[in-house]
Amino acid sequence: MNQLKCTTINCQHNLKTHCNAGIIGVSEKCICESRIKRVGGALEQAFAEIEASDEFPASIPNIVQCEASCIYNVDNRCSATSILVSDSFFNPKCRTLIRR
Asked: What's the number of domains the chain is made of?
């Protein structure tokens, strides 16, 4: 995975739109199952974003295990060169999905 951009609010792994979870799980319905809510909520995430360096590495490779019926799903691993995960009504979802 060359680039994974995550714009979810209130996730322990999200910092400066980069997911720090080494392995990311995406369900059949494209929901990010790796999300862990921050103890201090969205306010704590805002403070973490301010404190993080601008040189934060945004290109650290991640492994995305995916169960969705998507053209990028190859043996339950995402083969897309970049993906976007963002908030939806109830859960963060993979927005790169292209159904088979």
From this structure: 1
User: What is the side-by-side order of every strand in the sheet holding 3-6?
Assistant: 14-15, 18-19, 3-6, 82-87, 92-94
Give the domain range for residue 26.
3-94
Residues 48-62: tens digit of each pLDDT: 877 776 655 555 667
In a domain, 100, yes or no: no
In a domain, 17, yes or no: yes
pLDDT in tens, 22-76: 899 999 999 999 999 888 887 888 778 777 766 555 556 679 999 999 999 999 9
Whether 99 maps to a domain, the answer reads no
Output the pTM of the full model. 0.81
The candidate with the shortest Cα–Cα distance to 84, out of 93, 75, 72, is 93
